[in-house]
Amino acid sequence: MTQEPLIRIAIFVTVLLGMVMWEIFAARRPQRIDRWQRWPNNLLIVVLDTLAIRLVFPLAAVGAALVAAEQGWGLFNLIMVPTWLAILASVVVLDLAIYFQHRAFHAIPWLWRLHRMHHTDLEFDVTTGLRFHPLEILISMGIKLAAVTLLGAPALAVLIFEVLLNATSMFNHGNVRLPIKLDRWLRLAVVTPDMHRVHHSIVRKETDSNFGFNLPWWDRLFGTYRDQPAAGHLGMTIGIEVFRETRELRLDRLLIQPFVTPPLDVQKNIY
User: Fold this and answer.
1) Which residue of 36, 38, 206, 254 is surrounded by the most CB atoms within 10 Å?
2) What transmembrane ranges does the database entry give (predicted)?
3) Do the Cβ atoms of 61 and 144 come closer than 8 Å?
């Protein structure tokens, strides 16, 4: 696992550049806000998130898996199963944990304050999939470490899961066009951009749907799946009802958003 950082960076850059090119040549929706107003701030958030994780959780998730294996902690370190099965089951269960974590970040008010920064992007593209508040990232990592340890997930499974989660987050936030039939088939195996875009609708019942990031099955299984936005993908409004001025896209404004209380006249319509 000594090559983990290099593997993750290489895949991250490859997927990011691939999605950027796809968005340039086959955009799904026209964007009214220039990329240069949004992308530098969204990408700087990634840098801050990475620094926060390295500072608070130096071992991160793969390191936690190695420690758990050393100490014999967790389900797959206590029972004998084939390695391939432990890896496959771990990836699926960790994805399920992220699904429920995502629902919790919408349902619990103080967690929503952190998570709503992700939803206040006024456009929807590959960089939206990287835009999470550092405090949310730290809480998310804490949950992930607990899940990895309790599961006794193999380190390789955790690396696969982390790479998949990061790559599919960029993919399903992409402002990219897919043939309708292909999208319908892809939704059987992975969350597609059209599926996840519904989750970024300004309409609350649509925001509270399609929570999956990687595997699409959980939304159907737990009743949170919504096929299409009511206004259509070209007519829908991205974001939430507050923080709609372009100045809110600046890095400093993004970092203080969780601590800003919306005006009383709009609080009744949001979380």
Assistant:
1) 254
2) 6-25, 46-69, 75-100, 145-165
3) yes
Categorise residue 210: left if φ over 0, alpha if ψ from -120 to 50, beta otherwise. left
Asked if 148 and 64 touch (Cβ cutoff 8 Å), the reply is: yes
Domain assignment of residue 167, yes or no = yes
Q: With beta carbons less than 8 A apart as the criterion, state whether 33 and 249 touch.
A: yes
Nearest-Å Rg of the Cα atoms of the chain is 19
> Model pTM?
0.93
CA distance 25 to 164: 24
Q: Could you say which DSSP state residue 231 is in?
A: T
Which tens digit of pLDDT belongs to each residue from 50-83?
A: 999 999 988 789 999 999 999 999 999 999 999 9
- First vs last C-alpha separation in the chain: 41
Mutual angle of helices 134-151 and 60-71, in 10-degree steps: 20
pLDDT digits (tens, 9 = 90+) for 90-137: 999 999 999 999 999 999 999 999 999 999 999 999 999 999 999 999
Quickly tell me which residue has 């967790």 as its tokens: 74
